[in-house]
Write a structure and sequence with these properties.
The protein has a 4-stranded mixed sheet with strand order 4-5-6-7. Strands 1-2-3 form a 3-stranded antiparallel sheet, covered by helices on one side. It folds into 3 domains: 51 residues, no CATH class; 102 residues, DNA polymerase, domain 1, CATH 1.10.150; 199 residues, hpI Integrase, Chain A (Orthogonal Bundle), CATH 1.10.443. The chain is built from 14 helices and 7 strands. It is of the alpha+beta class. A hairpin with a 5-residue loop joins strand 5 and strand 6. Helix content is 51%, strand content 10%. About 1% of the residues have low confidence.
Length: 372
């Protein structure tokens, strides 16, 4: 027998599965009558407790994927999970489910074996030419999903258990532009922005996001999260994982809460003029950078390949460069110009000075310029 009760603003259904207590948060915030409560309790008992007794209960992979995303979306609404994390989960599941449909058809969840996961892993390496960081992130992004499948009695064991997840690539000097490349990119982007402000060049979101990274040292994800104004219901608080970035009404200050770290960045006139121009041209309502066609927010994964194409346009072709390249380049450029590690850390949002110090080891080759 389960129990249905109110917890804060939402109702929760509690039941037992294999001797363990489980909880299901319901999307009900209004007070319900005792009659409706009893009726709902019977329905939930039938759905969850019957399911927990039936080990052969299975559904299509896509169906469970949608249920999982709905659950995580509600967690974002209750500020138990960040929007950025949800976007990542959506992307990893989308890539995996599209691969499964193309190669194996519409599988039931219990047909997703370790062999299917291994074939997906090899496909990402061999066909999509992804590096081990990307493939590892894809597989780690599936861990929460398979854990949910086990909790809902769709699976007895995660198929990821027998799959070796690649470790992320360590940051190295070949992922950071040298000072000549960095200044080449910087000059190109500055010239583009001047041309754009004078209506001599068209809006290009890749170049504009790259310019803001070079000017401020912001993470790519922070630029993509940037809103025109604060959402006073969600964009508050510090001691949680929920991330937010917003401008003040006069566009003179940027508030950034990312990786549980809050910082403020003053906006100079040139960036303010650029933001006003972007708002006028795109007419976006919530996020500064949204798809003009779909009116949805861009994410990190949609930035990566266009960014590399942009670099090739200016004859910079390094397969190791990522969406974080310009942030890394900005930090090392400030170090080269003898800006203190503590100031750089405060600007870019490093939690400790040790993180910033790591960059100084990656530009040791610059010492040659002092000697010769």
């Amino acid at each position: 027998m389960g129990s249905l009760y109110r917890n804060g603003k939402s109702y929760v259904f509690s039941y037992y599965e294999n001797g363990k207590q489980k909880y299901k948060y319901l999307d009900i915030t209004n007070t319900i009558s005792d009659t409706r409560k009893k009726q709902l309790k019977r329905q939930l008992e039938s759905r969850y407790e019957t399911k927990s007794l039936n080990k052969k209960f299975s559904q299509k992979l896509d169906t469970i994927r949608n249920e999982y995303i709905d659950l995580k979306t509600k967690e974002v609404q209750r500020q138990l999970r960040s929007q950025n994390t949800l976007n990542g989960d959506k992307q990893h599941l989308r890539v995996f489910c599209e691969y499964v449909r193309d190669k194996h058809g519409r599988l039931n969840i219990d047909e997703v074996s370790s062999k299917v996961i291994e074939s997906f892993k090899n496909y990402r390496f061999d066909v999509d030419n992804c590096n081990q960081t990307t493939v590892g992130n894809n597989l780690r992004g599936l861990q929460g999903f398979f854990k949910y499948c086990i909790e809902q009695s769709h699976l007895d064991l995660s198929p990821l258990v027998q799959v070796k997840i690649p470790q992320p690539l360590k940051r190295s000097s070949d992922k950071i532009p040298d000072k000549f490349e960095f200044h080449k990119i910087e000059k190109y982007l500055k010239d583009y922005v001047v041309s754009y402000l004078n209506d001599k060049d068209e809006f290009n979101w890749i170049k504009l996001i790259s310019y803001l990274q070079i000017r401020t040292g912001m993470r790519n994800g922070e630029v993509l999260l940037m809103k025109w104004k604060q959402n006073k219901k969600t964009d508050i608080g510090e001691k949680h994982s929920f991330s937010y970035v917003y401008l003040n009404p006069s566009k003179t200050k940027l508030t950034i809460h990312f990786k549980r770290n809050l910082r403020l960045i003053p906006i100079k006139n040139d960036i303010r003029d650029l933001l006003i121009k972007i708002q006028k041209d795109t007419k976006t309502k919530v996020y500064v950078f949204e798809s003009i066609s779909t009116k949805t927010q861009f994410d990190n994964t949609s930035f990566s390949r266009p960014f590399k194409r942009f670099l090739k346009e200016i004859n910079i072709d390094n397969i190791n460069y990522t969406s974080h390249t310009l942030r890394h380049g900005k930090i090392t450029d400030l170090l080269r110009n003898d800006v203190s590690i503590s100031k750089i850390g405060k600007l870019v949002g490093h939690k400790t000075s040790r993180i910033t110090e790591d960059y100084s080891h990656l530009i040791s080759s610059d010492i040659e310029d002092l000697l010769y």
